[in-house]
Model the fold of this input.
Amino acid sequence: MPENVKVVATNKKARFEYFLLEHFEAGLALMGSEIKSIRAGQVSLAEAYVMVDGGEAWLMEAHIAPYAQASRLNHEPKRRRRLLLHKKEIRELWEAVRQKGVTIVPTRMYLKDGRAKLEIAIAKGKKLHDKRQVLAQRDAEREMKRDLNQRK
Done:
C-alpha cells in the first residue's frame, strides 16, 4: 500500500460473503461535514452496497456519523452518495449487475492525497459450503502456525 493512503474503513464481511471478481476505485461526492467525519474514522461499510441507475453509480446505506461541530449544517448519516467513476466503468458495472447473482459491494474506504476514495468490487455471492470451506482453511492455517511456533 502506498505511503499517501490511509485506510478509514474496511468491509470485512464482503470477503466472507462474496467472491470478489473485479475491483474499481471510485471518488465520492461528499458534503464538508462528511469528509470531516471520514477523516475522524467514523464510517461503517457493513450494510453498504452500490446501485447503478441512469448512467450514475450511488453508494447506498453507508453510515458516516454526523460531525459534532457542524451543528445545523450536518448531513444525513445514511444518505445516498454519488460515486465518481468514468462512463466506461459505470457501463461495465451495469453490464455485470445484469447477470444473476452478481452485485457491487464496497470493500474499503480510504484517504488518498487528502481525497476520500472507495474501493468497490463486482462480487458473486458465496454458498454456505463455500463459507464453511473458508472457515476450515483458516482453522487449518492457524493450527499450522501454532505448531510451527511451538517447535521453535
About this structure: The beta strands are 5-10, 18-28, 43-44, 49-53, 56-60, 63-64, 81-84, 102-112, 115-125. The CA atoms of residues 25 and 115 lie 12 Å apart.
